[in-house]
Amino acid sequence: METIAKQGARVQLQLNGRVREGFAEPRTQLCDFLRHELGATGVHVGCEHGVCGACTVQVDGKSVRSCLMLAVQAQDSRVDTVESLAEGELMSDLQLAFRRNHALQCGFCTAGILMSCAEFLGREPDPTESQVRDMLSGHLCRCTGYTGIVRAVLEVANERKSKNGEK
Amino acid sequence: MTVDQSVAFDAPTRRIGDRVERVEDEALLRGLGRYGDDASIPPGTLYAAVVRSPHAHARIQSLNVEKALEIQGVHEVLTGEDVARWAAPFAVGVRQPMEHWCLAVDKVRYAGEPVCVVIADNRYLAEDGADAIEVSYEVLPVAVDPEIAAEDSAPVLHEAVGSNIVNERNFNYGDPDLAFEQAAHQVSLKVKYPRSSCTPMECYVVVAHYQSASGTYDVLSNFQGPYALHSVMARALKVPGNRLRLRTPPDSGGSFGIKQGVFPYIVMMGLASRKVGAPVKWVEDRLEHLQGASSATNRVTHIEAAVESDGRVTALRYDQMDDCGAYLRAPEPATFYRMHGNLSGAYGIRHLKVRNRVVLTNKTPTGLNRGFGGPQVYFALERLMQRIAVELDLDPLEVIRRNLIPADQFPYQAPAGALLDSGDYPGAVERAVAEGGLDELLERRNQARAEGRIYGIGYAAVVEPSISNMGYITTAMTADERRKAGPKNGAVSTATINVGPLGDVSVHISSTPQGQGHQTVVAQVVAEVLGIDFDSIRVNVELDTQKDAWSIASGNYSSRFAGAVAGTVYRAAVAIRDRIAKVAAEQLGVDVEAVRFANGKVFAPERDPIAFHRVVGAAHWAPGTLPEHEGGALRETAFWTPPELTAPSEDDRVNSSLCYGFIFDYCGVEIDPVTGECRLDRYVTMHDAGRLLNPALVDGQVRGAFAQGLGAALMEEFAYGRDGSFLSGTLADYLIPTAPEVVEPVILHMETPSPFTPLGAKGAGEGNNMSTPVCIANAVADALGHADIQLPLTPSKVRGLIGIEEPPAPEHLKREVEAPSIEGGSALHASDSVEVPASPQEIFDSLLDPAVLAAIIPGCHQLVLDGENRYRADVTVGVGLIKARFQALVQLSDLEPPNALCLSGSGSSPMGSAEGRAQIRLTPIEEGRTRLDYQYDAAVGGKIASVGARMLQGASRVIIGQIFSRLSQQMQGETAPTGTWSRFKLWLRRLLGKGGAA
Ligand code: FES
Ligand code: FES
């Protein structure tokens, strides 16, 4: 057992559009690998048991809790973290809406929440408030009481709708 | 001299009072925050894992670290012996012979108490090492319930004290006994406030580096203050203050008071670094955090009021008992004394009698938690006000109104010493009633009740103290003891402003924010005073005790930012502006009084404006041109302590805080008659926090505190077993409100500036933690007509209050045999069945075969015969975050070949004990196939129980299910899959449903 644990593997994946490679033991959690091996410290770890949602990233386009996945399972996958949301140095409409609506305080939960919201809005362009709250139920935020987050998501949905309408 | 504030020009936006977007946000939104675990660490840093006690009370008989040290990559283990050699126990706020060390030295007194620290190459290896540590304990009887712990017959935690009551103080203000004698009515109530915590999403982080050449402990940690604890840590490390360099990272993942409790770990990891001779990093995990970090203080209160017939209260008697856990950890017993001066609340009550007792129990030590002391006091006081209304048959709002301090009495001297600075309580109540729509809410209640629905309305009027008096804690001592110890008072805030050679302005504050947006507000203040662009200002909030200005009052607590810290920034900004004005006056050739600052320029009438950067540039580039007495290089540090924060008086009156805001809340709650769920129909919260520096951020604080108050009211509680085992170790057990559960509160403001703070602002961040739990409880009391309301109001508790009996278990789930149980632990039971491709006889025989048994028990390393159908087994079981190796006894009994038998096991491990019994019934279904029905009962205690019932139910189902599916595979000749992990993950995925689990 001890020796197995130490046998490591090179894990290669596409992180935020760049091919990256690092070392992982079979038991290394994906969140630890992303944070400490590849430096994606935007991924936050709040519970390590799959409840808080802070560690949410997208693996091949789907939201995943990176504390419940092993690094070796992400071999050859496309992994996107919160660091991928901005266009270069310009924040996305979602990020700007979060700032406008005071949707974050300490920002620790925010990385995971943004990833779920980004995926959700792609899937559900015209959500109701209760759908937004339902989607957020997989995340814990201790600072905001969620109001600003809900408003930000609804605002982005409306913005995108009217933009698409104009076209 | 102070330059006149007013400017003739249009006020640029983003000044004091504007709803400014936060400067903090961009980095946090882009994943570029720098939290504790993101900080760069020195090369060669090692990682620590803390070994914790599975028992709530036990004597450590032996500690064997050999096996841990054999693991490659494990370097050292810090033990209680090292700690006793290098360190001292933490200083305590009361005089008692009790010792609290950063690691247990001979006894453990709560489940989760640190016993030793394993230091290894990485965190995974450190945890392997922790698993290999062998500790043998002599388990002692426990004292868990505070009222029982206070009795003479209770097991004593600290033998030298001789009792679990470690501090008692009695206070008399006015003539309460006479008031009670003369009162028309006496109304009394007993309440218990439970344990909970505001649980930040980021846990504790410490990176410690002992620099042996200078004997300095250099530590980076997400500590939040108060920095009075720096002295406590330095003394525990036995070094002068300048040999403990404490630094904080730029960002923090929330605290709400809780990160005060990291201080013992700062000492612990400092010593760990000393032991191993390398930097050591420790990142707390969530189980450790919930179990062992900190907690709000649970309290038992008997409260009584002397009441006139019209509902006016003339006197109060408080008999309060605080359960501070196993050690009185600094700054406890502050939960009592933070609120002491204002115990009479928002009311003009003149007579007060108070008994405060501090009791220690076998639970995690308590500490700061948002609202600190407030939720406990107001839960008693505002419940009592509601009871007065019920017992005197008055309207509860009328009772509140008749007792409020009139608006013309401010500043108001409360009987226990608070000097309530400003306010208009009756005015705030009337505005809230009108603007929040109370009449409509009352109508909704009528309507609901007419339709037979269960609906109630609750109220709470709360005084929210802010900016603590650093001397209030000495109220725990007698006047005599205080005299000997020397006076303690005041609260020094600091702020430094530097104007650089390019005219760039930087500010440093020592408020260690935890997400509240201090940088934004500070920039607003400085932008306004210096008339410069908001975006150009940089505010640094990292604190380095070796380089920055700080005081023992520094840190992020007691809502001190807006009133004290922003006010001190203002004073520093004014000081530097006055210096710059002198320089400018010379350059402009005018009197200094004529100089004005706005739009990045410095003006005077009939002169061409000069750019700000040019004026200040002279201080750096041409100091020879400066006026006399101007030393050049523009840097100002302001220190400010309010004179109103005096030491407790001889007769124990204390102005425990500088500012006192006011909150008036009301809410409508509807209760589901079937599920017992409380649904908030509307929640209105009116705040008067003085002048608002950034209303958007204040609203954010109110919403966050409200959500936490809602959690405290309805779901959050740290549960302990009767044996002191901790039962809420995951976020699936310790429930925190999620988005669907939090309603949007109606937030109202009024602004009565404080006369005592530089900007007129008061604290606003903790109010709803104080008001919301009791406001909701009052609504539930109103809905159900009950006096005895205990938090949290979970659906099952409310069903009990409504009188709904739990339906009896369906027939097939009834249990025939007595279930195993572990005193105080967690009990589990369930049943299921599998189809096995074999005849009953074949299955029966296989179960009696040790080889088969060894193969089907998950994680079984070895199975040795120990008697007829009895085996000793060595089994590793993993549940959630915990993995433990059990020495178990496995037994087959009640044999009824080939139809039935019983498989039972019991065992113990360093993580706790477990016991289980499965009744097995074999029914043939067709040729060569059998249905195996099983029904099991299990019980666990110790650390394993801390992962909580919800997690355990699932995990035990998986593990026991595995036994029988492996059996089925055995009978098919297949090999069973090995990892429980994949199954556990599957189960988690089910548990989390749509939440996006892997
Ligand atoms: S850290 Fe992954 S869900 Fe909490
Ligand atoms: S912003 Fe702090 S936890 Fe969500």
3D architecture notes:
Chain B: Keywords: Molybdenum, Oxidoreductase. Chain B: Belongs to the xanthine dehydrogenase family. Chain B: GO terms for molecular function: iron ion binding; oxidoreductase activity. Chain B: InterPro entries: Ald_Oxase/Xan_DH_a/b, Ald_Oxase/Xan_DH_a/b_sf, Ald_Oxase/xanthine_DH-like, AldOxase/xan_DH_MoCoBD1, AldOxase/xan_DH_MoCoBD2, AldOxase/xan_DH_Mopterin-bd_sf, CO_DH_gsu, START-like_dom_sf. The complex is a heterodimer of chains A (167) and B (998). Chain A is built from six helices and five strands; from the N terminus they run αββαβββαααα. Chain A is α+β, with helices and mostly antiparallel strands. Chain A has two domains: 10-84, Beta-grasp domain (Ubiquitin-like (UB roll), Roll); 93-163, Orthogonal Bundle (DNA polymerase, domain 1), CATH 1.10.150. In chain A, helix 3 crosses helix 6 (147-166). The longest helix of chain A is centred in the C-terminal third of the chain and has 20 residues, at 147-166. The radius of gyration of chain A is 17 Å and the shape is globular. Chain A starts with a helix and ends with a helix. Chain B is of the alpha+beta class and 998 residues long. Among the domains of chain B are: 407-469 and 655-805, Aldehyde oxidase/xanthine dehydrogenase, molybdopterin binding domain (Aldehyde Oxidoreductase, domain 4); 492-639, Aldehyde oxidase/xanthine dehydrogenase, molybdopterin binding domain (Aldehyde Oxidoreductase, domain 4, 2-Layer Sandwich); 811-992, 2-Layer Sandwich (Alpha-D-Glucose-1,6-Bisphosphate, Chain A, domain 4). Chain B has 25 helices and 35 strands. In chain B, strands 3-5-1-12-9-10-11 form a seven-stranded mixed beta sheet, with helices on both faces. A seven-stranded antiparallel beta sheet of chain B has the order 29-35-34-33-32-31-30. In chain B, strand 10 (216-221), helix 7 (228-236) and strand 11 (244-247) form a beta-alpha-beta unit. The longest helix of chain B is centred in the middle third of the chain and has 28 residues, at 561-588. Chain B starts with 24 loop residues before the first helix and ends in a 6-residue tail after the last helix. The chains are: A alpha+beta (167), B alpha+beta (998). At the A-B interface, helix 1, strand 4, helix 3, helix 4 and helix 5 of A face helix 1, helix 4, helix 19 and helix 25 of B. One FE2/S2 (inorganic) cluster binds next to loops of chain A.
